Amino acid sequence: MRPDSDSNDPGYISSPSSSKPDSSDDMKKVQRREKNRIAAQKSRQRQTQKADTLHVESENLERLNAALRREIRCLRDELKYLTCVLSSHQSVCPQKSASFPASPRCQH
What angle do CA 88, 93, 94 make, to 5 degrees? Predict the structure, then answer.
């Protein structure tokens, strides 16, 4: 294989007849590369923006989750307290009702 037969070869030597590059093709190539560079840059910006948005959303959901867990703990404590109050009341109430289930013993 001759060294001047492959234009991708780093040792490529162009023939004298092709020493004048076609400026129209070169211009199109430059424009295409520039357009591709801009498109790639926009794509990276969109990807970064999406990652930032997901990160903020994740942080917000973590805070909401923590708040809901605190609320669950408070509601469970309130349920224990009210169950204890009901149990105490049932033991002294003259009108025993079958509609109330037996409650667990108070821990207060």
Answer: 160
